[in-house]
Design goal:
The structure holds 2 protein chains of 2 kinds. By secondary structure, chain A is mostly helical. Chain A has one domain. Chain A contains 20 helices and 2 strands. Chain B has a domain of 36 residues. Helix content of chain B is 70%, strand content 0%. Classes of the chains: A mainly alpha, B mainly alpha. The interface between A and B is large, with 41 and 31 residues.
Amino acid sequence: MNIVMPNFASVLPEMFVLGMACAILVIDALLSGRRKVITYSLSQLTLLGALILTVMHSGEKEVVTFGGTFVRDTMGDFLKVFIYVITAVVFLYSRDYIKSRGIDKGEYYVLGLFGMLGMMIMVSAHSLLTIYLGLELLSLSLYALVAFQRDNAVASEAAMKYFVLGAIASGMLLYGMSMLYGVTHSLDIGKIASYIASHQEQQMILAFGLVFVVVGLAFKLGAVPFHMWLPDVYHGAPTSVTLYIGTAPKIAAFAMAIRLLVDGMQGLAAEWQAMFMVLATLSLAIGNIVAIAQTNMKRMLAYSTISHVGFLVLGILAGTREGYVASMFYTITYAIMALGAFGIILLLSRKGFESDQLDDFKGLADRSPWIAFLMLLIMFSMAGVPPTVGFYAKLMVLQTVIDVDMLWIAIVAVLFSVVGAFYYLRVVKLMYFDKPSGSGSLIEAGIDTRVIVSSNAILVLLLGLFPGGLIALCRLAFA
Amino acid sequence: MAFEKIIFYLFSAILVLAALRVITARNPVHSALFLVLAFFSSAAIWVLLEAEFLGIVLVLVYVGAVMVLFLFVVMMLNINIAQLRAGFIRYLPLGAAIGLVVVAEMAIVMIRNFGLDKVARPAAKAADYNNTEAIGRVLYTKYLYAFEIAAVILLVAIIAAIALTMRRRKDTKHQNPSEQVRVRKQDRLRVVKMDAEKKQ
């Protein structure tokens, strides 16, 4: 048999991250407890290096290598760059938090890097096998991170729930993939797509496999009715881990949906569009309505995630290029918004005070007007108030849905967004019009965290005023 | 052909029954043993599918190593079965109903649309076909990338297990010999001067 040499240049970022993660693991074991700053700096350097490697090799044409299990294309590069940047900010925000909670072990960053490696693998997967393995790598790292605070019973419970439900979801996904493999005799996404296109008579059995794939996907995205894990995990996990789970993996999940459904099963579009319609409507409804009843900020943001996932699904469901562009734009901007929201919760918290209750935000404008203003920007953006970017993202998704004549679902989305605006604006009301209750929060965070949180929130406004650049990039990804 | 079919159905029946017993057995040790039986039956089915290497590895690795360790863990942990079963009866009707509906739906789709007349039968391999060799050929070539990722997943599992269990517990008492040796009289003894008690 002749061996085709894989194109190693296109997997350089993955190889670099893997090598560095292993190196950091060893270096950290040799460091004494006080020099954790080296572990942290090395992790950030890894992200910077991966960014440079990815950008250096971008702009070339699509490369499929490693026996058809890996693909490097514009969408992949673009999403990876966002994943690096978001992970870097997550590490930066987490640093003070984990230090004061006594969980600043080197493994925290190593697991974070391995999780990110899993996301990179998912983003540039070209085979069912690689998608599954990337997902498992990501999930395993996240389970461990959720349970990282061992003395915290709530976190352990959340990790257990996440683990069991995640395992069921993986099983579902794997079963669906096995059915697809059984029919198409291939794991390669390109080959599956061409098989589906040429074998219309086997639509039914392919759809059977598709159902399980969509269930697995919905679990990972957190779309209703497969959302049960999300509030508990967001609430129970240490806030810095919630920040991580709530941002970058959403981008990876979006890439996974595109690779599986658009690249692989375009021939079954009618089938998965119908399933996505149910997922989108239910997510928008449950996410926005149940969030109103929450008193915990992290739990409220978890339900808000579910409703945003509804929008994300809506864009893919439109099934047009514009729809995918809108969905990608929505995913990225949502990740930026969530980063800001959880970042501010982290900023306000200190040892022994999590600042994750809604009441903790009472009268924030009196105590620290600047932070309150940043939170106001992010809440406005999540609610979809112009001129923030959240408005523009929602508008783009709705536009594409209306373009494919699904007016009713656009109306449903708008109605539930109005419902959702209530609980975002309630936070604003608490901050600006209520008297502070009890413990005035003292911000201990370093100047670097403050600067990044500020620019994070300002970015939400700037992207809303000038969305053109990001949209152009998203268009490029689906050229 | 007929003989193969009989064997297939025999092992499939054992597999399904064993899998059911894994979740219904009262004793966790029995559950683990039924899981061993389930693994063994699926290994037999894999051998029927001409994947003899995978079948043997399944028996060696899972039955031989993983399940033995698992049994140790089950025996060492003090699992409160009554507590685990508390909600079982309450959720059984709903769970069973949903499960049955799903199985029925799956059966309808499968029987109608999946079969040798719908999907071509994979060609039988020649008598000298070697599954071990076939896997060896592709494992480090075609599936190199996936193979490496699988290795990374195992590494993460190790890191996670160590990071979660290796910690200094607050309630354990360590001895530090060097501190014990270096202790001075002043650290431990306190001389208290008291006035002599007066006789009453």
